[in-house]
Amino acid sequence: MTAEQAYDIWVQPAPGRTVVTHDGETILGTAHMNTNRPGPGAHVATASFMVAANARGRGVGGALVGDALDWARGRGYAGMQFNAVAASNTSAVELYERHGFTIVGTVPGAFEHPTQGRVGLHVMYAEL
């Protein structure tokens, strides 16, 4: 994908938010957050995260998750929902659980992992 395509997918227009954490010129991670669904579901936020491989284990993901939760609370959302957390990404699942998220359901085989084959996708939720 081109940089323009990635920008269009990742950067959220207002009232959503996109953040980047860095060390000098080195990008460590990024997050974006927005309303999960419009209309009757607009009281629930969502967020997505990416952390550079060389920044993992340094608290970057936790800082991004905390920032997203603070953003959602500050805007009066009732909860935050993650729609697709790969079950194979145990580090992310554990991180989200430490921040108050629970797995509310799993879609079996919905994620095509490059080495593990099809794995489940969790839906995770935290009440705010």
UniProtKB/TrEMBL annotation:
Gene3D superfamilies, sorted: 3.40.630.30
Annotated transmembrane regions: none
Domain N-acetyltransferase as annotated: residue spans: 1-128
Domain of life: Bacteria
MF-aspect GO terms: acyltransferase activity, transferring groups other than amino-acyl groups
Protein name from the UniProt record: GNAT family N-acetyltransferase
Entry-linked InterPro entries: Acyl_CoA_acyltransferase, GNAT_dom, Mito_N-acetyltransferase
Signal peptide start and end residues: none
